[in-house]
Amino acid sequence: MSETSEPAFGGRRALPRNASNAAEDDLPTVELQGLMPRGVNLQDYLHVANIHLFKERWDTNKVDHHTDKYENNKLIVRRGQTFFIQIDFNRPYDPRRDLFRVEYVIGRYPQENKGTYIPVPVVPELQRGKWGAKVVRREDRSVRLSIQSSPECIVGKFRMYVAVWTPYGILRTSRNPETDTYILFNPWCEEDAVYLDDDKEREEYILNDIGVIFYGDFNDIKSRSWSYGQFENGILDACLYVMDKAQMDLSGRANPIKVSRVGSAMVNAKDDEGVLVGSWDNIYAYGVPPSAWTGSVDILLEYQSTKNPVQYGQCWVFAGVFNTFLRCLGIPARVVTNYFSAHDNNANLQMDIFLEEDGNVNSKLTKDSVWNYHCWNEAWMTRPDLPVGFGGWQAVDSTPQENSDGMYRCGPASVQAIKHGHICFQFDAPFVFAEVNSDLVYITAKKDGTHVVETVDTNHIGKLIVTKEVGGDGIKDITDTYKFQEGQEEERLALETALMYGAKKPLNTDGLLKPRSDVVMNFEVENAVLGRDLKLTITFQNNSSNRYTLSAYLSGNIVFYTGVSKTEFKKETFEVTLEPMSFKREEVPIRAGEYMGQLLEQAYLHFFVTARVNETKDVLAKQKSAMLTIPQLTIKVSFTISDKGEGQGY
């Protein structure tokens, strides 16, 4: 058997996969048709002397296509919109006897039926939605063309050629990197799948390269500035490299659904050597702590230059980088923050908190978690793969949480479909639905193996969903785009619809659901300031004519913002006696020394309170988190003028 370095391709595939924008093969400069007679000199025919692309920032092409902000000296245009080029020939162009066309090529194995080889004919009139070139000016040896691109064109960097027909074959310009042309998605084009009809929203979700990302606590929302930098030098090439690294077929890069789904997988490095390594263990010895990043540019440029994942990221860093990727390619995008975001580990659309019979949390059975906040992205696009009405904002998440079709990625999932519980539609709608609209279910795991649902909290998850307001740095509440108001019939109907579509896995509760207890428990956490003591106030309300005694248990934990506990710093039990129709308050002091030695980056104090009504065996359960605020430091400077006119500062 002879050895060969040539790859073998079986089945119906005639050519290798065309999955790299950077890879290329030059087209031949001369394509002869048969033998050429002696004495014929092809240089006597029409010949291209020069090509002008009008690619300076102030030129019409970049201004009209809203690409003048890109720090890139190549021509950058948006698909579905006309742009201009000028071709200088060796003699005046005569349309009666001269025939030429412009060609655009991307990748190594160009094919016209795949959209990777685009012949652009010279036509009398341009047609919307179709490639074509129209002569708009002829002057001496120069011809100016208006070129119309298809709104379904592949997004990427194309190589450009001009081909001239002769009686003996084709003369083609040689490869010239100066004529390379980037073609992007176009939110200004009605035929483009990412068309957005509001000019202020286009300004915000495509052209704004700085922003804020919200974090913190539901009752204490904070913001961090983030530089998306989608127009910075090298970022566009870095974003194209991300798709190359994913070995994404070039023909799929015309579809924003596929591009955003690949992007959600590639921004994290969990299973594909993507952009960012996630770390939630507070150990960052081999990289940059997530909280130290202030923008996407350094991350993307480092990833492209080193060809290795960058360390480290957490949800807001993943969301910030993903936002840069989407906006840079022309897909309208924004970062979203969900407060009390559920991580549904077993896809049953509810958060299952398992309790021991004494009221303690059973950490072995409890696999679901509630993040104090979680950031993801929304991308704007049509969804022709879904029923009418499910286009618009799509939730996409690059933080590696759960596996989707073999990779750590999430979305795009229609926000409208999530709101109405239509989670049968791709991609990953059940997971996003659970993040914003699942119930918190407290279940006692009995020693005989049965499970008893003690109580259901329908209001804890998805308390508030926000994004940056258009044209400012304020908060825009978008909770109502994901869910109906808590307690409304529509909200329960959406949950029932989600369950109807078969996403819920039955929980073995043996049909046991306890009736509502006569006793109501709640608690509040005093404003928690770093280094200071605080107080936790637990209230009990007896709504019956019976006298009750309760055994209560308090657990205080240091948790990551993801809801995962690092260590328990407080454990306390106490007894409560409630007279008929009475109200009682218990106060539990939390000393600073109890939690200070256990703190970590992005840490929260999480409190879990359970109480058992001894007479009825009812179990009451509540949990809340408190974000530690840093004490405010005020520096006062006094300045006096002496009699000599000299200033003195203190």
TrEMBL record:
Enzyme Commission number(s): 2.3.2.13
Gene3D superfamilies, per database record: Immunoglobulins, Transglutaminase-like
Keywords carried by this UniProt record: Acetylation, Acyltransferase, Blood coagulation, Calcium, Cytoplasm, Hemostasis, Metal-binding, Secreted, Transferase, Zymogen
Pfam families in the cross-refs: Transglut_C, Transglut_core, Transglut_N
GO process annotations (BP): blood coagulation, fibrin clot formation
Domain Transglutaminase-like: 307-400
Catalysed reactions, as listed in the record: L-glutaminyl-[protein] + L-lysyl-[protein] = [protein]-L-lysyl-N(6)-5-L-glutamyl-[protein] + NH4(+)
Location of region: Disordered: 1-24
Record: active site: 315, 374, 397
GO terms assigned for molecular function: metal ion binding; protein-glutamine gamma-glutamyltransferase activity
GO cellular component terms attached to this protein's record: cytoplasm; extracellular region
Assigned protein family: Belongs to the transglutaminase superfamily. Transglutaminase family.
Biological role stated in the UniProt entry: Factor XIII is activated by thrombin and calcium ion to a transglutaminase that catalyzes the formation of gamma-glutamyl-epsilon-lysine cross-links between fibrin chains, thus stabilizing the fibrin clot. Also cross-link alpha-2-plasmin inhibitor, or fibronectin, to the alpha chains of fibrin.
Assembly information from the UniProt record: Tetramer of two A chains (F13A1) and two B (F13B) chains.
Protein name: Coagulation factor XIII A chain
Gene source species: Leptonychotes weddellii (Weddell seal)
